[in-house]
Write a structure and sequence with these properties.
The structure holds two protein chains of two kinds. By secondary structure, chain A is an alpha+beta fold. Chain A is about 50% helix and about 20% strand. Chain A has one domain: Sufe protein. Chain: A, CATH 3.90.1010. The N and C termini of chain A lie far apart (about 40 Å). Chain B has 14 helices and 15 strands. Classes of the chains: A alpha+beta, B alpha/beta.
């Protein structure tokens, strides 16, 4: 895809992220922090009948970290916890970002994924 | 100014675009004559210095000492007053673990400023844990200048350790006044000149500081070479730093006798190839002339400030300065994102806290973007930067 189109796709998600905010009656939550750039995130999770019935996040940081969190939460919402645990890979999120991540930016994209992985360990 | 002397600008075309390198406060590019000197040294003179009783080692030693002489002359110091370290950070640590450790007592106070680089804060905090002295910080006023210098008269700090030019704000501190006040109150004075030596003529005799530290790689020279200037009578009284080969006159099972300065502080095989090459970068700077460099950077620095100011939503943390160092925020865009966007145009700037978290907290920001220019930059670089920033600003 054309560079400018990718850019506007990313910025559009950044300005209107999915699942942004907190969930009042969450079942689980987890914080994540990237000491290198000061990015932080908190993910909230609601489980019903073994399904991720609701998920949200609050973050402060760069575009990549927020957009990745939007893509991640959108990806797993409504799915079975067991399926997500088995099948979710960082590459799937990375592919949907549509941009090539430099080494220094990959950690930004990984913040939400790793925080979510840690959260799954609590379930 | 002489961009053609720097091969990286011919060779590096990421994204098929010319490189616009604006991270010079971090490290500088190298001119061809500096790069060529590595080849000349390794093809003709490579041998361990001091050790060999043979011609080749003697030639290598002579080149190494030639560099020491060159550095001494460049800042108007004496030959024995120049000690080679790995970098500015190591030069400061050397002082802290030898000079400061020997001289500071629990009841003493030292004086730093909020704009110091981590390398001029953390080693002091480490030593403070051991000895327990007090650390005071000079604050900055609304114009980003150090304020309340008169506090020196009140607290009579045993040691004052300050940067000459801030790596974040681009402000030049009134070091002359600090030294004058320090002298009146028997303070020892350490100057972190990492950002200064490449930009202005520095004369340690005229300044009358006790110590001055800087790095070769920020002045067109190789990485891995730091410089510590110290007044000879003070260096003489200091204990050695690292123990090992070449810093001793004699050793027995129970004791050793150190060599005289500067050798007392240069233990083990030195980074002699880089030190030899460093001479060429000073030769190059002097062939251009420091006065001419000062003027060139000053003009381009003002131009940079004016072009940055045109960008909608920009906030510059610092004044229109003469040294081409500007930190800024742009709307609410994270500094890492700004760097990534600029990188798409092959423009390299710095993002983050610039090893100055104390200052970042003082300015109430988490991170900033920083542009820093040097002699090979020109107005077209700044135009590209300004254009690219305007495009980024439009996106948000």
């Amino acid at each position: 895809m054309d560079n400018n189109l990718v850019r506007s796709y990313i910025i559009d998600i950044y300005n209107n992220p999915k699942n942004y905010g907190s969930i009042k009656d969450y079942d689980f939550k987890k914080k994540g922090y990237n000491a290198l750039c000061g990015d932080n995130i908190e993910i909230f999770l609601k489980i019903k009948d073994g399904m991720i019935s609701n998920i949200s996040f609050i973050s402060s940081g760069c575009i990549i970290s927020k957009v990745s969190a939007s893509i991640l939460t959108d990806e797993v919402k409504g799915k079975k916890v067991s399926d997500v645990k088995k099948n979710l890979k960082f590459e799937d999120i990375k592919d949907k970002l549509l941009i090539e991540l430099s080494l220094s930016r990959e950690k930004c994209a990984k913040l939400s994924f790793e925080t979510f992985e840690n959260l799954l360990k609590d379930l | 100014m002489n961009k053609k002397d720097f091969p990286i600008f011919k060779n590096t075309k990421f994204y098929n675009k010319d490189l616009v390198y604006l991270d010079n406060a971090s490290t500088t590019q190298k001119p061809q004559i500096v790069i060529d000197e590595y080849k000349r040294f390794y093809e003709n003179y490579n041998a361990n210095i001091y050790r060999g009783i043979y011609r080749l080692s003697e030639e290598a030693t002579a080149l190494y000492e030639e560099s020491r002489k060159r550095v001494a002359k460049f800042i108007n110091a004496d030959f024995e007053e120049i000690i080679f370290t790995r970098n500015t950070t190591e030069s400061i640590n050397l002082l802290i673990y030898t000079f400061a450790k020997k001289n500071l007592k629990k009841e003493d106070t030292i004086l730093l400023s909020v704009m110091e680089h981590h390398s001029n804060i953390i080693p002091w905090l480490i030593l403070q844990k051991e000895i327990g002295f007090s650390i005071e910080y000079l604050d900055i006023d609304e114009n980003f200048n150090l304020k309340n210098l008169e506090i020196i008269e009140k607290i009579k700090p045993k040691i004052i350790s300050l940067c000459y030019i801030s790596n974040v704000l681009g402000v030049k501190n009134d070091i002359e006044k600090v030294i004058k006040l320090g002298r009146k109150n028997n303070s020892y004075i350490i100057i972190d000149a990492a950002q200064a030596v490449s930009h202005i003529s520095v004369d340690v005799k005229k300044l009358d500081c006790d110590f001055l530290v800087f790095s070769a790689h920020k002045m067109l020279g190789p990485t891995g070479v730091g410089i510590l200037f110290g007044k000879k009578d003070i260096l003489d009284k200091m204990p050695p730093f690292l123990g090992g080969g070449e810093m001793i006159l004699s050793v027995s099972k129970d004791e050793f006798i150190s060599k005289d300065v500067p050798y007392k502080f240069e233990a083990g095989t030195q980074n002699f190839s880089d030190v030899v090459v460093f001479k060429k970068s000073i030769d190059y700077l002097e062939s251009l002339g420091m006065k001419k460099i000062e003027k060139y950077i000053k003009d381009l620095s003002f131009y940079t400030y004016d072009k940055l100011s045109e960008v909608p939503g920009i906030k510059i943390y610092g004044n229109r300065n003469e040294f081409g160092i500007y930190s800024f925020s742009l709307k609410k865009i994270h500094s890492h994102d700004i760097s990534s966007f600029l990188d798409e145009d092959n423009i390299a700037i710095r993002a983050g806290h610039h090893c100055a978290e104390v200052l970042m907290k003082n300015l109430k920001v988490n991170s900033l973007s920083r542009v820093s220019i040097y002699i090979y930059n020109d107005e077209s670089d700044i135009d590209k930067l300004s254009e690219s920033l305007k495009n980024i600003s439009k996106l948000f």
